[in-house]
Design goal:
By secondary structure, this protein is an alpha/beta fold. About 50% of the residues lie in helices and about 10% in strands. The strands form 2 sheets. Strands 3-2-1-4-5-6-9 form a 7-stranded parallel beta sheet, with helices on both faces. Strands 7-8 form a two-stranded parallel sheet. Strand 2, helix 4 and strand 3 form a beta-alpha-beta unit. Helix 3 crosses helix 12. The radius of gyration is 20 Å and the shape is globular.
């Protein structure tokens, strides 16, 4: 029961950062070598060499800050042309206390070696979304990569979000499922025809959904969990229909589970002291946090691994475990442990056992799906 409570806590902590398969073992050395070449290509321009995704076109939704921004920057590192969408524009942020805007993200993408293009877009408004895709089609003739990162929820992290569903009603359900689920579906519908038009050249199209461990276990409330679980099912069933053929190009799809991500919002909570209060001082930033760029580098690794994506398409993938498999690192050169690994749990429990002695075993998802024990539910 204590283990179940710990797993539930881990899932809750991960979901606070917005970023959820059987026991995984380390990847074969051959795959690691493939990924090492992909990671090296991120720095290739310094040597005058082509970058891993040079010539490809990507769209990252919800990229003014957070994970979406991290993904856009990583694609820029890889030489991609990246369209970044969001509601926050320069001088008009939807989160004034946190900051971030699509123009700044686009400029940073360009600075890193890609080409960043900002498009103001509310992914809850179909006319905005249609206009964004029409512009991409006009300017690029097609699309290679879509990353669905836009997400909206009422006061995430607030005490109101832990109320039972009959008290929350539509106010909790509608925002989460409009931008974060329906928006993923609509963007995918518009992206596939554009990906089909760029079917020449040998590369596959790629649709990425930023999901959460909250799709696997109860986190926050019913509406949040159902939304994330639905994103995972959307990914799975997209793959079924994409594999049936009819396209001139294979399009792959994957759902990503980041860990505890140090987004701008989380950093704001840390600076105010609220983060330690929420976490009870049990999460050490130097060992378990991920930056948004780690998720971005996972996207790059998947986009450059055509053979591997054939097997992964339609599945849920944990970002930290992809870093281990493909050999890429976070900003500081390290690899944070997977949120379902014994190393992560050992850190959370403030174990006295040295980290190098803790095996990097991964707990099955069915354990995480158990939810909180009865005593936690009643407290």
């Amino acid at each position: 029961e204590g283990l179940s409570g710990c797993i539930f806590l881990l899932a809750t902590l991960q979901a606070l950062a917005f970023p959820g398969s059987p026991v995984c073992m380390p990847a074969p050395a051959s795959r690691a070598r493939v990924s090492a070449r992909s990671c090296s290509s991120l720095r290739a321009s310094a040597r005058g060499e082509p970058r891993a995704l040079e010539g490809r076109v990507a769209l990252v939704t919800g990229a003014s800050r957070g994970i979406g921004k991290g993904v856009a920057l990583a694609l820029g590192e890889a030489g991609c042309t990246v369209y970044v969408t969001g509601r926050s524009t320069r001088g008009s942020s939807t989160s004034p206390g946190v900051g971030g805007d699509i123009e700044t993200t686009a400029e940073e993408v360009t600075r890193l070696g890609g080409r960043g293009i900002a498009i103001a877009c509310d992914h809850g408004v179909d006319s905005d979304v249609n206009a964004a895709f029409a512009r991409i089609e006009k300017e690029q003739g097609g699309l290679d990569i879509l990353v669905n990162s836009a997400f909206s929820a009422p006061d995430l992290g607030g005490s109101n979000n832990t109320k039972p569903f009959w008290e929350l009603g539509a106010a909790a359900w509608d925002p989460v499922h409009l931008v974060g689920l329906r928006s993923n579906y609509i963007a995918s519908c518009l992206a596939v025809p554009l990906m089909d038009r760029r079917g020449r050249g040998g590369s596959d199209g790629l649709i990425v959904h930023v999901s959460s461990f909250g799709g696997n276990t109860h986190v926050f409330n019913l509406a949040y969990g159902v939304g994330k679980a639905a994103v995972d099912r959307l990914c799975k069933d997209q793959d079924v229909e994409l594999r049936r053929g009819g396209l001139s190009r294979q399009v792959r799809t994957v759902s990503l589970y980041p860990g505890i991500v140090k987004t701008e919002r989380v950093q704001s909570l840390m600076q105010s002291g609220e983060w330690d209060e929420i976490m009870g001082g049990r999460v050490r930033a130097d060992t378990v946090y991920e930056t948004p760029l780690l998720t971005g580098r996972a996207v790059v690794a998947l986009a450059t691994d055509r053979g591997g994506m054939a097997a992964k398409s339609g599945s849920v993938q944990v970002v930290a475990e992809l870093a281990e498999e493909y050999g890429f690192t976070d900003v500081d050169g390290g690899r944070p442990p997977s949120i379902r690994s014994l190393k992560f749990i050992s850190n959370m429990m403030e174990s006295k056992v040295p980290d190098f002695l803790v095996p990097d075993w991964k707990l099955p998802m069915w354990i995480m799906a158990q939810g909180p024990p009865e005593d936690a539910k009643q407290s």
